[in-house]
């Protein structure tokens, strides 16, 4: 009985705090959250954050508590020696100890995160406002081209070569790793190592013009075997069936191929995203719309309505049925 | 100290052309200071001073140049711009309250966020320091005015016109929309006049800021009361020196960047275009070499205000005065070595990231010392809380949180996570509210009686505090989490379901609570107070000089006291009574001219009675023409802009010439307490010479930034200079250098010959000088005639150096002609030679600029 009573008294505050903690933990979740990590770097950086947060809370309470003490609780004169000691201890001693250990810990994780990846190689180019993605598996002489979605194998450190076509962008996938800018005229690298299979969201982090807010992407981390299978399929052109379909005829008739490539057809445009397997991606228009036939039809007719300043012209002259056929066909290109 | 022997305060005049040395007893004895002034004389003195310092009435008040008037205009304008930028923030918060909102379009939102940042930085934070300093620094020093009142007024009018132009662009929907950092290439490709408004409008304001910095630095160095050695200066004055110095070295890199940027935008010189050898990262370096010190330029003056407030409420002198001064200087230096922490994600080598991480953390030490010195002062004092201290306590709570998140983001790997996210938005607002806004409001409540003679409302002040403090934390505390769960900055919208919705709604609600707090504050400031009683002279029982003056009188200090303590009101007998009875220096204005006392730089010995400017329209006219020169190019009205610029130069020349020939009616005058001081001095003893020196330090920094550009391209780009590039013509460049060197020697010679009593030879030098200068400038331009600046960054940066130098040679010619004219009309001569000294000083810098330009343009590329 004694013990149970004891447990109850102990548990009461825990019970009161637990829901709050749960809410807070839930608040840290999200597909684009750095606090629900699925990559080695993000896990390390998450720890770095929690350690620094704890230290900061203690230091904040100390400094403000001291101020409260000397102004409200103890407004009477204290000794001059104590006061001067406070300047030296608080202004020099404390920061020296705290900062030295913080730098030692914080900077020690940097070299590893900056090492070039020894696994899969990707080349990602920031465009206004979408991502050109190329996979260069070992020994490849030409890339597997995709767009607006990044797939990474779990358990190996992939290397992403970052380029910018027009203005500065920043490649950021918070669930897996930090961010690195993409700068015209320069080649940057970021390496990342997912530890579990899942779906994450990334976004451009450097202001890149009118629709900077609408430049996101989906990242899918996959077990290596699944990944290899997917990449092999992705390397294929469109199927013979798709080639014969009515949607393809409309695609050709509307001149879509001037800007978009469809591997296995004459469409070789490089202005816009490669559409060979567009239907296999999780989102449309760089994370702006869901990948459905309806969304595709809306997008093709009025891209400006979803992404102000977008380069793609609106195809609102097409009739409803034709549009839907084209959209359904595109959605089927998996 | 009973001897009344007059020690020689300057060397005896070598010949009759030098200013007479001060004569009379100094320092004053206790008996001299205690000697009462007869009531009748006292009344007559007061009448004369009142008449001399009376400001113009009615609409003519716009011609006023006195620091008290201009300071109030300046502060009120900054406050108004802040409210404007704050309204933009509220509108942005409405847009972000819910996901996928269409309250603001993408373009409008981008204009708003760009303008919010630009206005808060350039139209509020930095000018607020200058406004407050122009308003209060003379009071801190018991000076009647600052040394160059017309420069303050010119700076104010420039700031007002430039600010209205930049901020007003938003009303026409043509504002800049590439962020307050204006990174190329996105800003370069932006259509319309937005980026031009940003570049030209803000360059104009930056020039005004530098002018104010020069004014304030010279004010601290030369306008202190006798006896106030540097170690007795109020801490605020130390911070003015540090911050003024930082402005001089931080703003010019941005001006150089603006210069390159506008050349690329208007003429297509490819400085930031990688396809032609340029590099967008150069802009980021120049921007942040400015931008990071900027943060401390904003923060340190608030620490300075706190350093004035805390001792009063601790009722004890500041503890650790020297620690604080050294820390302020240390922060100033360190702040120039941290800029790369804004570029941690740009892919720089790990080694430099580590270095800049450590340097960024190091700034915690001087900041910590300053904060703990305040705590130490409160420990030894008998603390009595008051409303200003409530704001200080709030600022500490907010600032320490911002400082601690600053420690976090300075760790490079963590910055990769939160860089360009709402975490950083939260961090920077915590530092700026805690390290700037709250201390300034504490200062407003504390210093209100000094400025207006009335106290502000205790009740409204508490309401304003609790509303803005609570609102601030509701808005910005959640933003840390918003950033960590993935929301980037500068996005006009976001999709729902990513866990950001409730956080954004909370921030929006908080923003309106802050706005309510500011509304209460604004009401407290503007509500009519004519029926309220006058505040006591020293309501907080402070110990510093600003509380000795009568705010109802426009003369500032009734007489300039002799100071022997950091807290003269606490430590010196009958201090306020004596100063106000006229028992100090320059207690009278028998010649009916405005005067202030000039003292020596280190130990503040009196050396001159300076005649300062009276109300004039010329500053207003000059500011408007200058505005035309900067603003008209935005509309591609280049001819009109040129005309406006020429008129601006003409106006400034007239302004300067009129004061240069305004010689005092006597050599010396009775400065009070038995001391006779010269009225006209020249060379290093004169404030004008110091003003020139300090201005040229800033100017040279801008030039050094262009040279940095050359070396940046050289190290960062393999194709600099490109294979087979055309180089500058070496013989012509060397000839140009030789011509300029001779012109330099002639200018220096003119000054020396004139001082030795041979003004006719000086005239001859100044007649030949301009011809050689023009020939030198022409040769320099011809030397690069075959380089086409639109083809590659190499010829472009060479041309940029030449354009810069040629423009300065133009100013050099004007100065030589200015001296020539003065010598010909005998307005200048062996005795009145201050312009020749100042022009020679300018030419030292010009000669060096030409030397470096020729070395970079003609020699360096041949060695690469």
Can you characterise this structure?
Chain A is of the alpha+beta class and 334 residues long. Chain A folds into three domains: 38-114; 117-235, Immunoglobulin-like; 240-331, Cupredoxins -  blue copper proteins (Immunoglobulin-like, Sandwich). Chain A has ten helices and twelve strands. In chain A, the strands form three sheets. Chain A has a five-stranded mixed beta sheet with strand order 3-2-1-5-8. Chain A has a five-stranded mixed beta sheet with strand order 4-10-9-6-7. In chain A, β2 and β3 form a beta hairpin. Chain A is elongated, with a radius of gyration of 27 Å. Mean pLDDT of chain A is 93; it is low at 1-8. By secondary structure, chain B is mainly alpha-helical. Chain B folds into three domains: 29-233 and 536-681, no CATH class; 387-533; 694-863, Four Helix Bundle (Hemerythrin (Met), subunit A). Chain B contains 26 helices and four strands. Chain B has helices at 30-34, 39-53, 67-96, 106-140, 149-168, 186-189, 194-222, 235-267, 280-314, 321-334, 350-362, 364-380, 387-409, 412-418, 422-452, 458-484, 501-526, 568-571, 575-580, 618-631, 638-660, 687-716, 730-755, 759-783, 793-824, 834-863; strands at residues 595-599, 606-611, 668-670, 676-678. In chain B, the strands form two sheets. Chain B has a two-stranded antiparallel sheet with strand order 1-2. A two-stranded antiparallel ribbon of chain B has the order 3-4. In chain B, β1 (595-599) and β2 (606-611) form a beta hairpin. In chain B, α23 (730-755) runs antiparallel to α26. Chain B is globular. Mean pLDDT of chain B is 94; it is low at 1-14. Chains A and B meet through α2, α3, α4, β7 and β9 of A and α4, α11, α12, α13 and α14 of B. Chain B: Keywords: Cell membrane, Copper, Electron transport, Heme, Iron, Membrane, Metal-binding, Oxidoreductase, Respiratory chain, Translocase, Transmembrane, Transmembrane helix, Transport. Chain B: This is cytochrome-c oxidase. Chain B: The chain crosses the membrane at residues 70-92, 112-141, 153-177, 197-221, 233-255, 295-314, 321-341, 353-378, 390-412, 432-451, 463-482, 502-526, 615-632, 638-657, 700-716, 728-748, 760-784, 796-824, 836-860.
